[in-house]
Amino acid sequence: MKKTFGRKITALLLCAMILSAAGMSGCGNAESESSAASVSSHQNSASDTSSDKDDDTSKAETADTKIELTGESAKVTGSGASVEGGTITISSAGTYTVSGKLNKGNIVIEAGKDDEVCLVLSGAEIYSEDTAAVYASKCGKTIIMLADNTENVLSDGKDYVKTEEESDDDSPNAAVYVKDDLTIRGNGSLTVKANAHNGITSKDSLSIESGSISVTAVNHCITGKDALAVSGGEISVSTDGGDGLRSTNTDDDKGSVTIENAKIDITCAKDGIQAEHNITIGSGTISIVTGGGSENNKTVKNDMGFHMNNTDTDTDTTESSNYKGIKAGGDISISGGTFTIDAYDDAVHSNSNISINGGSFTIKAGDDGVHADSELTISNGTVKVEKSYEGLEAEVINITDGTIDITADDDGINCAGGNDQSGFGGMDGNMQFAHGFRFDRNQSQSSDGQQMTPPEMPQSSGGQQMTPPEMPQGSDGQQMTPPEMPQGSGGQQMTPPEMPQGSGGQQMTPPEMPQSSGGQQMTEQSGNGQQNDQPQMPGNADSNAALNISGGTIYVNAQGDGLDSNGALNITGGTIVVNGTTNGGNGIIDHDGSCTVSGGTLIGAGTSDMLEMPGDTSTLNTVAVLFDKSVSADTFVYVTDSSGKVIAAMSPKKNYGCFILSSKDLKAGESYTVYTGGKADGEAVNGYYSGNSASGGTKYVTFTLSENKVTYVDSSGITQYRGMR
User: Fold this and answer.
1) Helix, strand, coil % (nearest 5) of the chain?
2) Domain boundaries, the chain
């Protein structure tokens, strides 16, 4: 009994000594490993691959080996390590405590393929002139433990020397380079200065659990090739040439990034957080600046007047597209966290799907705020896009809850198929144009059933006679008269504008517009509101595209379309406020398929030269108020019912010629009054007043809502829409 008790005491004292040397944190802490594994149980993350190995702490040798760095060399106390000049070689499993300063040398780990080596940095500073400061060439798992209250520095020189045994793929290219799994933990700090290539690289899985880690690198900062899992700690990375955090393996079950409970600050030339496959973020505070920020990306207009972004947005395999905040080749799933992103290109980008189920985002983007090639779903959280070319873009966008606030140079929310389409969009089949023209997607054929072709575009006076398009014939065989061009102030007929010229002085041919599946017909509205057949103009409909809004609060301030779907637009709930464009050719809403409004509230103001309205499948009524002249920005406008109850109130942030409202409070046969000016109780959010109290102002019109799903009114009452006011 006494002998057994003595052995227990000895074992306990030995364990206490090891824990003390490791800064009171175990190199094989199973609890810490399991917390990393909980970041994402469905992915092959770094924590998943390492947790089984760390459950048994007996893999670390019970004897602690101390390595004291002495400037030009080192002194080793214990077994498993040897010194030759400035190179310290660790050859077996165990725990090694490193302290002191090494002016020119490194630590090399050459242990067994299943060994676990724990390197405890306890006030260590290592500079390696021509290779990695820490190089694990063979080891089942390497653990870097940052001892409590210690500062540790690992750095390299600008030029690496490759040995004869090393291929280009196997030779070190990072200040900390591990060919197998790597875990970093502890309550100390680690500064990595990578002067040649990359900062920290694991060729397998990298797990960061705790510690204060700062990396500056010429190229990429932190890489876990198979997987990168961050489950704690404070990480700050900076590079003028590469990515911040990344996982690069293209195998189907690898190349993932998972983040939880960490504070991460990234300033990088290219992508902030990049994964070949999936990214999962559960919590944390993440700040990202890429490519110098959104202000460095300037959008330009081409000769045809279309906005074109100077970022290559075709595919993300091109070098010039790698300036995104968070980018995944697969899915992105975010359920929490606080994000501040200022990205040269997209702030959040997936080549597949994005799901946001929580978190708070403050975004500035040179291109899209949030972009998914396939489907984007927002079901909770706060997304504030302060600057973007387009705010949200995907083929299918589903918004079920949350608060979304978008400022965009082009469309606020855009549903377009395929890869990133920002900056160029075709004309669609529901556009209603100034001076009475309309593309009517429901009339794509002439009276004899033949497909109609677009008119020939007029030519400039540079040697070519301008001729108006030949107008189609009506059902009686008579040619229809084209609409009269508007007149100038002197009574003279205005000349259509010349098409812009190319660099050689030749007239540029207008782009051929894409067609929808059914073709689109251009129609003119006559004075009695009937539509006369006009030449067909095509659209860019996508049968798969859809914008589905069932909840949440959405604010849009856009210079393009407020809500734009190349397919269907379905609103079944939520509150949607659109401060629309002052630019012609854009609308408060824009859709190429059906538009159904059966719930929620849609309120918006903008230009009236190209209006699109909900369709007859809607169960809610819509009123479009057309003003006789442009109304100045911030001019209050509100609608009351016959009892004086305020239905909706808004102070649009830009000049407007039209105000639209879809609401359950609009009932056919009831009387409503529109006022401009006056005031409302409470404060507006992006121009919208959620309360029901307003007073004063000037009555613009009183009308009785028609039985039609859409009612147009102007100062004289119910009217027909005839284009720009």
Assistant:
1) 5, 45, 50
2) 33-275, 282-426, 546-719
